Amino acid sequence: MKKLTELCLYDAREGLLNKDFTSKELVLDHIEAMESSRSLNAFITETPEIAIKSAENSDLRFNKGTNRDLEGIPIGVKDMFCTKGVLTSASSKMLSNFIPPYESTVTNNLWNEGAILLGKLNNDEFAMGSSNETSFYGPVINPWKGNNNEQNLVPGGSSGGSSASVAANISLGALGTDTGGSIRQPASFTGTVGLKPTYGRCSRWGIIAFASSLDQAGPITRNVRDNAILLKNMCSHDPKDTTSSSKKIPNFEESIGNSVKGLKVGIPNEFFQEGMSDEIIDIWNKGKEWLKKSGAEIIDISLPNTKYALPCYYIIAPAEASSNLARYDGVRFGHSVNSSDINEMYKATRSEGFGDEVKRRIMIGTYVLSSGYYDAYYLKAQKVRSLITEDYNKVFNSVDVILTPSTPSSAFGLNEKSDDPLSMYLNDIFTVPVNLAGLPAISVPAGLDSNGLPLGLQLIGKPFEEETIYSFAKVIEDSANFKNIENQWWVQ
Fold it and tell me: Would you state the pLDDT for residue 238?
């Protein structure tokens, strides 16, 4: 039998149901993997006591026959989700002492279905970054390394700890958040499956806000079926979140293996970027051929306003961040610097509490919202956002999904782009338009580049049609036959 940490979520669930092993045995193996993989810096807070106690309770439920859908399954949670009684820092000094008195809706849904918390996962500070290098707790290391190269690589961001923990067989699945690609880009960099659901599919209540009109929770897993299982248990209508959808939640797992014969796949001309590597184009072409062989029809499409997506995003997201992060002033909670003058206290608290990237985005956001610039920047960006959304609405009258690369490259080296914000922002060029339009999208590992590093393909779907995305994603997964890391060099 495989080591328990080598099992995927689905197989672990089946093993527990068949009583091949206990939940406590499963959890103890994953705790050992977490503790022996600290060199990756994937976890900020480890919660072994909570995990063991929960596993014992799960085993009692299995014995009584009252087990739930995710009973005994150990997962990691990005440190943007509030977890009652467990440090939730958003990977920032500003919240390095914050213990929430409440639970986020998404995590609460998972605990109600029997899932078990292994710990809180590292991410870019306040989810602002594309490499997981802006965290107050230091960067996360990608478990993958290039051929014959000892250089440490970034795992992508902001959900880098989530993707690294899944790729390294530390957790059976992980929660991430996606504001402009923060689930799909790290999934692509680590050879995992990452889904950004339709905006409103998962509640945002209890998730520390970055950009409220763009943020969405989603799962990162080792395969497509696991992803569908985790998503089903994350979703619920939540009256505490006014953007939460009341649409019926399907059993996403049932869509796995559905035929895509006769369905139409759009290939957007605008995603062929100048300077794109031949390897990215080759993997994209392979994806088209795989879907074509499965009976889908490939259609060229146009999304003319795609070229404005990145500048549009980097106006709207910082503007919303500027507003959301105004609450961190040292008065009510979080980091605080004592001063006899309240203005000095605000200044010192925010100067010490926020890192450089967060400060950069707050300043940009404050600028575009300021008097005299609101109409020229923020209002115009919102109008462009409407045009981008309309492009997708028109295209989806003639296609069922859209196929693109997930990222413009494979994982890059640690510190390689940290001094070049513009180059870093360009990593999200294929993912950002999806958030602006509120659409669901998934990244599926499709192959390796010449350096032996994962490359992902992105499938974009119609609003609330994650089932269709999963059907197509399974075709790509089966065709690619992607293999996970074999050499666990990071284990100590």
Answer: 98
Residue type, 69: D
Task: Summarize pLDDT for 55-93 with one digit per residue, the tens.
Answer: 999 999 999 999 999 999 999 999 999 999 999 999 999
Q: Indicate which residues carry an active-site annotation.
A: 78, 158, 182
In whole angstroms, give the CA distance from residue 477 to residue 481: 6
Residue 392 structural domain: 1-492
| Secondary structure string (H, E, C) spanning the chain | CCCHHHCCHHHHHHHHHCCCCCHHHHHHHHHHHHHHCHHHCCEEEECHHHHHHHHHHHHHHHHHCCCCCCCCCEEEEECCECECCECCCCCCHHHCCCCCCCCCHHHHHHHHCCCEEEEEECCCHHHCCCCCCCCCCCCCCCCCCCCCCCCCECCCCCCHHHHHHHHCCCCCCEEEEECCCCCHHHHHHHCCEEEECCCCCCCCCCECCCCCCCCEEEEEECCHHHHHHHHHHHCCCCCCCCCCCCCCCCCHHHHCCCCCCCCEEEEEHHHCCCCCCHHHHHHHHHHHHHHHHCCCEEEEECCHHHHHHHHHHHHHHHHHHHHHHHHCCCCCCCCCCCCCCHHHHHHHHHHHHCCHHHHHHHHHHHHHHCCCCHHHHHHHHHHHHHHHHHHHHHHCCCCCEEEEECCCCCCCECCCCCCCHHHHHHHHCCCHHHHHHCCCEEEEEEEECCCCCEEEEEEEECCCCHHHHHHHHHHHHHHHCCCCCCCCCCCC
What pTM did the predictor assign? 0.97
What confidence score (pLDDT) does residue 1 get?
58
Which residues of the chain carry a pLDDT beneath 70?
Answer: 1
At 442 the pLDDT is 98
Strand partners, 220: 174, 194
pLDDT in tens, 408-461: 999 999 999 988 887 888 889 999 999 999 999 999 999 999 999 999 999 999
| Residue 397, pLDDT score | 98
Q: Find the radius of gyration of the CA atoms of the chain.
A: 21
How many domains are there within the chain? 1
CATH of the domain at 273: 3.90.1300.10
Q: What's residue 427's pLDDT?
A: 85
What confidence score (pLDDT) does residue 2 get? 73
- Residue 420's pLDDT is 82
Contact between 233 and 440 under an 8 Å Cβ cutoff? The reply is no
What does the alpha-carbon distance between residue 57 and residue 76 come to, in Å, rounded to a whole number?
19
